Structure formats: structure tokens, C-alpha cells
Amino acid sequence: MTVYVEATMKREQMPYTLSASDLHVVLALVRGGTLARASERLGIAGATVFRAVQRIESGLGQRLFERSRAGYQPTELGAALAEQAEAIALNLEAAQSIAQGSPEQVSGSVNITTTDAVLHGLVASALKPLDARHPRISYVLHTGNEIADLVRHDADIAIRATKDVPVHLIGKHLGAIQVALFASREHGPIEGMNADQAAKLSWIAPDDALPGHPSVVWRKRQFPKIRPKYRVNSILTVMELVALGMGVGILPTFLVRGRNDLLQLTDIIKDSQTELWLLMHRESRHRRRVSAVFEHLHHSLGDALRQP
């Protein structure tokens, strides 16, 4: 009996050995912030994630996360372990690239988030030439008006119109998004565009989906009595409805290049101009696949915006 107790005590005093899967769980929960998001990243049930975290914390004798209704906030130790897990992932990525080809080749998936207008008008054509240079990179393209949480790595790269770049992100200014009022060519030119003329037109705008969009703010300031006939949730939809002759709408000039079914009614509306930024989390600059795509988009999108 005495021998058994001594052996048991020795086992209990042995330090807990972290495994690669433990670190993978910690990193997923730090990035996700909730059990549901972590389970999606790991491809396992939320209850399994919960039990894994409990087991790791029990083994270490320290808390890795503070629980609240908002989710899981990492402690100093949890954040440090997640940082180490990130470094391991980077090393594995580099090893995979070497194993699959030359060290110059990069592979893996890059998650990009932007709006539908920027994706279709700029990003898609910019990504195409990358196939020849980096054929082993694949892409997850997400469109939406919300800003993906780069801190939690919901996306690797974000392309957004913004004025303030958070300090924890790397931002590259791409250029100005110039806009003008457009109609279908069958609508015919409209001279002057005074308030009386504008009030007689059917407008298509993203008022409810993007109430703070510069085009919405400008229209409400210039033509306060106008109420859009069609309220939509994307600028791309504005363009397609305008092209069908269903009304007029404010569109980015880069989006209408090559379209012969649209007519520009006004000069560039400088009061509605915004700036486009390419954003990446500072940690992501060490991911070769992400940095390769980021640098390519920086030059390609900047050049595209400067085109007349």
C-alpha cells in the first residue's frame, strides 16, 4: 500500500506535458473567442473543445481563459501558448512548402474578405495572375459589408474603405474610390441634376444595409426629399438594377469599366469619395502565403484604382 501511495504521489507531481493537439485547441479558442467558433475551426463538437480546455487547465494547474457571456478571453498564459502554437503552424507551413517544391514556392489557403463591388471590380482580376507565380495557393473569398475580425483570424486579408486603420493591423493605402451618378444608356443624359430633376428620378441605393455609406450620406445631404424606390444590400446590386433601366444610382467608376450599358450622369462626386485600404494582422506578415498575396494585391489594386 505504501509503495502504491508513493507511486501515485510521484505521478501527481510530474509536470503536465503539452501536446501539439493541446496547443491547436488553445489557438483555435483564442482565435474564435467562443466554443462554437473554436469547434468550427477544429471540426469537432463544442463539448469536446470544452473538455479539452478543462483537461489542459487541470493538468497545468492554471487557467488559460476567463469565461464570460461574451466568450473566452485568454489569460496571459493562454495568449502565450497561442503565440507558440502560431509559431509552430508557421514552421509547419514552411516545411510543407519545402517538401512540395522549392523554398520559393508557397502553398496553402488565404482567406480574403471585402465587399462584392471590390471583389468583382478589382480583386478577382488581380488574383488571376498569381496562379502562374504561386499555383499551390488556394483562396477563400468572403463578401460582406461587415468588417471581419482579423484579430481572431476570421480572415487573413481584408480590403475595405475606411478612414481609421487599427494600430494592431498592417495597412496599405491603395487609393481613392471615385464615384459618380449613373443611369442606363436608355435613360438618356440628364443636364444639371438639380434637386427638382433628381426628385423625379427613381433612385437605387443601399440605405438600410449601409446607412453610413458616403453615397447615402451625400444623397441625403444634397437631395433630402428623395426616397429610393429600391433599397438593396450591395453596390453590385445597385449597378445591375441601374443597368436594367430601373433607376439611377451612385457607383464606383472602377466597377463600370468596360460596361457599355451604363451612362455617367455627373462628374466625380468628390464629397462621396472614400479611400481603399489593404489590411492584414501583424502576425500574418510571417505567413509566407499571406504576405505573398498581400504584396501582390498592394501593387495590383493600387494600379487598378489609378486607371482612368
UniProtKB/TrEMBL annotation:
Pfam families: HTH_1, LysR_substrate. PROSITE patterns: HTH_LYSR (PS50931). The keyword Transit peptide does not apply. The chain crosses the membrane at residues 235-256. Keywords: DNA-binding, Membrane, Transcription, Transcription regulation, Transmembrane, Transmembrane helix. One of its GO terms (molecular function) is DNA binding. The keyword 4Fe-4S does not apply. Coiled coil: none annotated. Residues 18-75 form the HTH lysR-type domain. SUPFAM superfamilies: Periplasmic binding protein-like II (SSF53850), Winged helix' DNA-binding domain (SSF46785). Belongs to the LysR transcriptional regulatory family. This is LysR family transcriptional regulator. It comes from Bordetella ansorpii. The gene is abgR_3.
